[in-house]
Amino acid sequence: MVSVKYRLSMKQTNKPKKSDKAASTAAAGLPRHGLPREGGQVLLLYSLTAVALCWIFPPYGVWPLALVCLVPWTVATCRTHRAWLVHWLSFFIGWAFFLVALRWLMPVTGLGYAALGVYLAIYWTLAAWAIRTGRRHGISPMWSLPVVWVACEYLRGTVMTGFPWLFISHGFFRQLPLIQISDITGAYGVSFLAALVNGVLVELVLRRWPAPGSKISTRQLWLGGIVTVVLLLVTLGYGYFRLNQVDFERTPESHGPRVAVIQEDFPLASTPPYSAAPPQVVLATYLSRAAEAARREPDLIVFPETVWSAIQNLSFIEVERAAIDNEYADTWLYGNLCHVAVSALARGDYPTVNVQISQLERPSMKLPRLPAEGGPPVTVVVGSVSIEQFPEATYPKEKRYNSALVYDPDGTQRRLRYDKRHLVPFGEFVPFRYGCLRWLYLWLNSLSPFSHGGRVEYSLTPGEQFTVFELQVEDQTYTFGTPICYEDVTPYVIREFTWDGPRRRADFLLNISNDGWFHHRVGPPPTSTIQRPLWWLRRWFWQSNELPQHLAICAFRAVENRVSIARAVNTGISGFIDPNGRIYSRVLAEDGRSFGPGVVGYDLEHVYLDRRTSLYGRFGDWFAGVCVLLTCLLWLGAVFERWVLALKHKIESLLRKGG
Known about the structure:
47% of the residues lie in helices and 12% in strands. It has 21 helices and 14 strands. It has helices at 2-14, 18-28, 35-56, 71-79, 83-101, 110-136, 141-156, 176-179, 182-185, 187-208, 218-243, 279-294, 314-317, 329-347, 350-360, 438-447, 491-498, 532-542, 546-561, 615-619, 622-658; strands at residues 255-263, 300-302, 379-389, 398-407, 418-419, 468-473, 476-481, 499-500, 503-504, 508-514, 564-570, 575-577, 583-586, 601-608. A 6-stranded mixed sheet has the order 5-4-3-2-1-14. Strands 6-7-10-11-12-13 form a 6-stranded mixed sheet. It has a two-stranded antiparallel ribbon with strand order 8-9. A hairpin with a 4-residue loop joins β11 and β12.
């Protein structure tokens, strides 16, 4: 009885008091409140970051928010005691952010839109994991945040073909002095600088609102602030230096060929009939618009990507009609007609163009015509589907490509063409088509709206090389590449087009895109005051932010490689970007000010030539690669710690059992 009382008294003596537990918790910097309160704080702070991020990108463009948007998320990530809460809420708020910011994808593929959001949100969790690991080892978020954030941007821009969209740097596309460092570090350098400013602010907040882990010294905080200010000043100094090197408008020797980009407004859908406008209307409208531009005698006319959906590559057109499979009989006829029409447009033979248009006209349809007197000859670039047939092969018997074709002023189509290399997953191809996982391909293909329930294998084949074309203008020979659609947002693609080590391959680039898949028409506002709020909500949801975001991202490719880019885009935004990233011209409406969705017409400008070198063009993503390497050390450290702690716990358990 005495021994029992003694053991009870010892347990009561050894049991920590509530005041002692609170004191030790405060000393460790751990939260004193429970899960509901802590979860609410984290959710609020994470949501603030997500909302701020949405506003830094076009069309809103509140770029100063980029300097503070990561502060709430990082503070909550560092202060929260429960790691699982950080990781899961980072994932779900990241998913919510991508669902809102990429809502323009939903009309094209609802399932793909949701799945892409899930995949991209994983990088928010990975970033939080690395930052918490660094802080546990005394590395302030002032240093870890910019490195980790850039690493995650790079990975989501490259892994599984990549989706380089919504980088923090993209919010700065109008701030030309700040983005000139892209020719050294790529767009990732601008993201790094913005995240560095966020990191300094995070450390200031954490000094007022303590977090678990070691507190950095005042000297280190001052060092971080000084480094940030110096880098900002150096970036601005370099930016103004680069901007003042060449005045493209006032330097005649920098004026390259005159290029006309054609833009119409034909929205598309992912379900049949895919377009409200019949293909013959699309063809006739574009050709008549090109004839208007040709009157001003450009050196080059550029149409958008696969704009009238014809197959008109020479290897397909030259096949005798009798040799064409019945499946392609109508396709061959339409493709041949389009080929003849574009060839006639290039050589200025408008009566022949009108004859081709008349063959497509129906009694209830009046198609536009070109001037009967004809026009000047001009080089024409047009987007087209190409087919190469292999009747002796087992599988596949044909390969389809998304191509850029060039017609010379004599009407001849060049045999050299560019076949798009960087294809969009599920939009242009379904993975696992060949090999032992073909069963997975067949299932995924059946889910796509373009496969008609799996009956059609619509996957394209990627091209084999980044083709560069020549353009002869009087006694000058220029070279140009034709990145197609989202290739202009993919850094390595534009670099491959423009540079071969220190040697420049292309004098300028022509981006041909078809952004008509993303809805932007909501109709006029209703007269009823009751219905008007719903109309505004529908307008906000359906307005395609993809168009201005696509243009903004393309501006970074121009700076990175010091190359002019002319864009011809169905539904817009078509225009011109100089090698400093300045958008110096767009296709405008009749009022001379409006541009973007719904605007039709053409724009004609000189493309500028830049003979400056580019460190990024020569060495690529070296800066982002260093950030990935450092971040991987944090991830590996976290994994190693978990193994070591698990092993230590197991050894202690065995020792206790043995004792």
